[in-house]
Design goal:
The complex is a heterodimer of chains A (about 170) and B (about 575).
Chain A (H helix, E strand, L loop, with lengths): L2 H9 E9 L4 H11 L4 E8 L5 E9 L2 H13 L3 E7 L4 E12 L5 H10 L3 E5 L3 E8 L1 H11 L4 E6 L3 E4 L6
Antiparallel strand pairs in A: 1-3, 1-4, 2-3, 5-7, 5-8, 5-9, 6-7
Chain B lengths: L4 E3 H11 L4 E4 L6 H8 L4 E4 L3 H15 L3 E5 L3 H4 L2 H9 L4 E7 L15 H5 L5 E4 L6 H13 L5 E7 H5 L1 E3 L20 H12 L4 E5 L1 H5 L3 H11 L3 E3 L14 E4 L6 H9 L2 E5 L20 E6 L13 E4 L2 H8 L9 H13 L12 H12 L4 E4 L3 H9 L8 E2 L10 H11 L5 E6 H7 L3 H6 L5 E6 L4 H10 L15 H7 L3 E5 L5 H10 L5 E6 L36
Parallel strand pairs in B: 2-3, 2-4, 4-5, 5-7, 6-7, 9-10, 9-12, 10-11, 12-13, 13-14, 15-16, 15-17, 17-18, 18-20, 19-20
Antiparallel strand pairs in B: 1-8
Helix pairs in contact in B: 1-2, 1-7, 3-5, 3-17, 12-14, 15-16, 15-22
The chains are: A alpha+beta (about 170), B alpha/beta (about 575).
């Protein structure tokens, strides 16, 4: 990990919110971040088992004391049932990435080695490109993408991180 | 049997009546006509204002004076956007308010329809909660939730956006009471007993305790509890601007307001206390320095607040309790006994004697003189509202607040133009009380058109216009910190406010000489045939002291105008 990456990961926070499945919730949450000049790095919204609620997983960079404010302000919103920060150890954290890589006869073998090493799969193949699907921690995906960049990445789409608390703990 | 059908607007008014609403401040427009129509057959009184900002501030003043939510009704687009200043004023000062906005029909939403504005989006950052109603059947539930949300926990404004096809649609009357659906909304009541115990332990060890009472204590109606606490532990009490009245400022333990233009003795006490207990104050930047480490560096800091987001926001306290001030204090007081603070009270008394608030009655008419005399003539038995600026600070200093809900001022937002309409709302809410609006010549001109509203309803408000023909507070800063380079502060060209009042049919009085203050104010206070305006033509160049320069700590307080050049404030506005 480069020093910059290390700094980023130390300052990176994952917040999970259980919110009412109502219009405008995303606006209210994003306003809390933007008012304090915080950039949202990734954001995943999906329905929960109970159709009245949605789950939001947000990753953002920033100063921990401001983040404490953000979580408290989010928790205060009428439409937010629960807001909490998840640390790496206490929760399973996963992400999915699709990476479209350039292919030529000389590099194909090496690209496929990378795919195998990161337990990724290939989901689309053309004569000059390959789409790779990989899942895992964001750090693992970062590492794979870093390897693949050598061979020329045409496009990259990541879902953003989702988390689930381990054991008895609730997300 | 089929149920009787009524319009969505009629359903809305029905449920507002059920929530005890008896007065609405509003201004109509196309998208709101169904609601105004439904008001024709309602016992709710409709007060037609002259501008929607006025409606919002009037509702705010009503809410602060009575504790009941103020209700505003406006139309879509510009009608709604004109309330934005009023909404943020209420939000910053935790005032319960419901703003009902007409909206274009649902099929036109987002299509740039006539008088369409995304009111939900525009107001989202400045409301406690908001709704865009998509089905008339939801109206009873939304009204129920809105009143609950705006008036419980830390109060705040709620906006309800009502498309015209929803308020115009026919919908069945509902027999069963609405069921709220807000699983994400909770608010603290009692604090955790271990947190209260920790606070008690700190207090017991203190020799120089200081109580800081804020607006939260006032909202929670913790007046008796604060008094009991102060008298039990024999601690002096300072209050924030909005906390005026929660602890009587004429009580022997009161040091009055602290902060930027607080009393010198309150700020001296701040520098010397070994413990400060905030009850419902949010350590606002008018009372804490930009460098927060400089705030009471050697004192134990304790924080009681109903809003968990206020804990650690500015000050990181040694102990805190999240809960309703009244309930927390009721749990806390039995854990405490009398403290020996004789030496401390003696010290504080010395500050009080050495640095009293004062002004000279010579050298022209002074704003302080007018306000001081108002206080003496009314014996403090009045509701005072203010605008924002020098007159506000002088009013806070010289008009001692003896009881809660007697001081109504825009603190957090600092909204000029607030004072006069807020007085209208206060008078509507408290018809028997004397209501005095102390306003500046700048702020008054921002909402002076509500003279019509006050006149039509014969509200016996006393409007005291402190006219120095300057935007005095900004000028004071330019003089002190910007080398006396005055820019954009000269209000030459002010109207003759007596004639302006008379144009609206409002009685006008004029004070030009210090010698006339008592005589003319007595006459104005005795005048009861509707509103009256007192035009006080005060000296042009006078400044507010004591003063803690913005961003500074209490140690930096200036008791009087500095002889040396001051640096520009850093770390705060």
């Amino acid at each position: 990990m480069t020093e910059l990456q290390l700094q980023r990961s130390q300052n990176s926070h994952t917040i999970s919110l259980l919110v009412a499945n109502k219009p405008g919730v995303l606006l209210r949450i994003s306003l809390i971040f933007s008012r304090r000049g915080f950039n949202i790095e990734s954001l995943v919204v999906s329905p929960t088992l109970d159709g009245r609620f949605s789950r939001m997983t947000i990753t953002a960079q920033g100063d921990p004391s401001i983040l404490e404010q953000i979580i408290k302000q989010a928790a205060k919103l009428v439409d937010v049932v629960h807001a909490t920060e998840h640390k790496d150890i206490s929760a399973v954290q996963k992400e999915l990435a699709l990476v479209k890589v350039k292919l030529n006869p000389e590099t194909t073998g090496r690209v496929l080695q990378v795919v195998e090493h990161f337990k990724a799969t290939t989901v689309d193949l053309t004569s000059n490109s390959l789409i790779i699907q990989a899942t895992g921690s964001s750090e693992k995906l970062d590492a794979m993408i870093s390897f693949l960049s050598e061979y020329g990445i045409i496009e990259l789409v990541r879902t953003g991180k989702i988390v689930m608390a381990r054991g008895k703990e609730k997300t | 049997m089929t149920k009787k059908l009524i319009t969505g607007a009629e359903l809305l008014i029905q449920y507002l009546e059920k929530k005890g609403v008896d007065i609405i401040f509003g201004y109509p427009g196309g998208a709101a006509i169904p609601i105004f129509d439904a008001l024709v057959d309602s016992k709710i009184k409709l007060v037609l204002v002259r501008h929607e900002q006025g409606a919002a501030h009037i509702a705010d003043g009503y809410a602060r004076a009575t504790g009941k939510p103020g209700v505003v009704l406006v139309t879509s687009g510009p009608g709604a956007t004109n309330t934005v200043t009023g909404i943020i004023t209420a939000m910053m000062d935790s005032v319960p308010m419901i703003v009902l906005c007409g909206q274009t029909i649902t099929t036109s939403l987002g299509k740039d329809a006539f008088q369409e504005a995304d009111v939900f989006g525009i107001t989202a950052p400045i409301v406690k909660h908001s709704y865009l109603v998509k089905n008339p059947v939801d109206i009873p539930r939304i009204v129920e939730e809105s009143f609950y949300i705006c008036s419980t926990g830390r109060p705040g404004p709620v906006v309800i956006d009502l498309p015209k096809d929803i308020t115009g649609a026919m919908t069945p009357i509902q027999d069963s009471p609405p069921v709220m659906d807000i699983p994400g909304y909770t608010f603290p009541t009692h604090a955790r007993s271990k947190d209260i115990q920790k606070i008690a332990n700190y207090i017991k060890q203190s020799h120089r305790p200081l109580i800081l009472a804020g607006q939260g204590a006032l909202i929670s109606e913790a007046y008796n509890e604060i008094q009991e606490l102060a008298e039990t532990i024999q601690a002096p009490v300072v209050n924030t601007l909005l906390g005026k009245g929660v602890f009587p400022e004429n009580h022997p333990l009161s040091l009055g307001m602290l902060g930027m233009h607080g009393t010198a003795y309150a700020n001296k006490a701040l520098t010397r206390c070994d413990l400060i207990l905030s009850i419902g104050s949010r350590w606002d930047d008018r009372i804490t320095p930009g460098k927060i480490e400089r705030f009471c560096p050697d004192a134990v800091k304790l924080h009681i607040d109903i809003d968990p987001a206020e804990i650690n926001k500015i000050v990181v306290p040694d102990a805190s309790a999240v809960g309703d001030a009244k309930l927390v204090l009721r749990d806390l007081i039995p854990l405490l006994g009398k403290l020996n603070t004789k030496e401390w009270l003696k010290e504080v008394d010395q500050y009080r004697r050495k640095f009293p608030l004062n002004y000279k009655k010579t050298g022209g008419l002074k704003a302080q003189h007018v306000i001081d005399e108002l206080y003496k003539l009314t014996k403090g038995d009045a509701i005072v509202t203010t605008d924002v600026g020098q007159h506000q600070m002088w009013a806070a200093q010289f008009f001692k607040s003896h009881f809660s809900r007697s001081w109504i001022s825009s603190g957090g937002a600092g909204t000029m133009g607030f004072g006069f309409p807020a007085a209208i709302g206060a008078q509507f809410g408290c018809s028997k009380k004397t209501v005095i609006a102390i306003v500046g010549d700048g702020g008054f001109q921002m909402t002076a058109f509500e003279l019509s509203t006050a006149m039509l309803h014969k509200l016996p408000i006393k409007i005291v216009v402190i006219d120095n023909k300057f935007l005095g507070m900004v000028r004071q800063w330019q003089q002190l910190f910007y080398d006396d380079r005055l820019s954009g502060v000269n209000l030459e060209g002010n109207p003759d406010f007596v004639k302006l009042a008379e144009a609206y049919g409002v009685k006008g009085f004029r004070i030009k000489r210090a010698a006339d203050v008592r005589k003319i104010l007595s006459r104005a206070l005795a005048y009861s045939d509707g509103p009256c305006l007192i035009h006080a033509e005060v000296i042009k160049e006078d400044n507010v002291f004591p003063m803690i320069p913005a961003g500074g700590a209490a140690e930096d307080m200036l008791i009087e105008a500095p002889k040396v050049k001051m640096e520009k404030p850093k770390g705060s506005t």
